[in-house]
Amino acid sequence: TAQAAPPGDRDVIANLWSWNWNSVARECTDHLGPAGYGGVQVSPPQDSLTRGGAVWWDVYQPAGYTLTSKFGNESQFAAMVRACHAAGVRVYADAVINHMTGQGSTSYGGASFGKYTYPGLYSPADFHYYSEDCGNTDNLIHDGDYTGSARNVQNCELVGLSDLETEEEYVRGAIAGYLNKLIGLGVDGFRVDAAKHTSPADLGNIYGRLSGSPYIYQEVIYGSGEAVQPGQYTGIGDVLEFQYGRYLREKFYGNISDLRTFGESWGGMQPSGRSVTFVANHDTERGTGALSYKDGAAYRLATVFQLAWNYGTPQVYDGFTWSDREAGPPHTNGFVRDAVCGSGWECLHRDPAITGMVGFHNAVRGTAVANWSAPNGNVIAFSRGTRGWIAINNGTGSHAGTFPTGLPAGTYANVAGSGTVTVNGGGQATVTVPAKGAVAIVAGGTTTPPAQVPVTFNV
Ligand code: LM2
Ligand code: CA
């Protein structure tokens, strides 16, 4: 059954969205494991509609549950999971289980299908379109439905995608069979795509059929006054916390000093222990409500803050460089090319300030925020118990000051930048925090991430 708990001592998840399996495998070995990441989220692994690589979103239109996709084949997928596990990194797969492709065509794996007919898997009777369950005559979800009734949101079609009748025994079994196949290949958990569009009762039933104890986190986008709320899903798994990134954008374009109380008390936010946080994901970076790599230093600094703050399970996003919001990643005949950092791929997760903060996050686990100070709206500093201390400057000029750190006297390496910090016998440090930069120190005082803790994998 599903494990509704964060995944252990090393819980930072790198979201290597649109990366192919060979590149994820290499990244686990060379960067994610050594930096102290505990997990990696990978793109939907099932076969899908193909648009020949022209768009990124074809992979959100499943054509079947075999594992030939634009990211690689089943043996490459399995090899990736083994490589990540060997590096101490768990693998979470993006599970597209609310719907199938809304367009008849062919797939990356060479299958032919029509809307509502996916040979050997689903036929028209398996979709809400052929029952009376939707409530809208055109069978589509309309914008106004979200503040209306859950029935429309969950039984009608999301942008015309064939909506699976997840109340049905056969459909529940087929979805669970697909997820169990991934678990059999070593997958440790799932990001459940479009969870808002499937009822918690149906999802809970499906999760109950899974082997092992996969970590489940669900995409339920918060909207004020909506019929379907993230809190309806926290009894069956964790949720992706969409308010988190919205608030961070607001405050990094306003006063970060407002973040003193940031967490569950803020409107719409879920309990820390149920939340996976992210500054950006593939949808929000193409929208207007969140920060993205296009915001430059503020985006990186917000990620530094995320890894320092004691709320939720942090996810660090990394996709490809884009200007056309529909364009797909670099590809050859539709199949995604190996990721090259700095050449078509962003790779924030490799940034030394970010890997340093992954080590900070792991070192301060379980400690409370203390020693808060905010000399002005753009500068904040706080400790995590007596294990770590950080100062963040979102201003356009450097800031010099003396701060209480909560740490023992000594000289420490700055894991979020360069140079050293001296803490005096009174626990104070006098530092200059660079513009749009940070100074962070960890008890023990080195830039080396804490030793890897042995992890137990599912399977
Ligand atoms: C998600 N979460 O709930 C994903 O995070 C999001 O990226 C997906 O939308 C969506 N659910 C479905 O899995 C993306 C993309 C859409 C795209 C769909 C399906 O944002 O634009 O829709 O994937 O590929 C596309 C066309 C749309 C068309 C639809 C059906 O853009 O115009 O609607 O396919 O053919 C007629
Ligand atoms: Ca649905």
Automatic annotation (TrEMBL):
Family per record: Belongs to the glycosyl hydrolase 13 family.
UniProt entry keywords in alphabetical sequence: Calcium, Carbohydrate metabolism, Glycosidase, Hydrolase, Metal-binding, Signal
Name listed for the protein in its UniProt record: Alpha-amylase
Source organism per UniProt: Nonomuraea monospora
Top-level enzyme category: hydrolase
Cofactor or coenzyme needed: Ca(2+)
Enzyme Commission (EC) number: 3.2.1.1
Catalytic activity, reaction form: Endohydrolysis of (1->4)-alpha-D-glucosidic linkages in polysaccharides containing three or more (1->4)-alpha-linked D-glucose units
Full protein: residues contained: 23 to 481 of 568
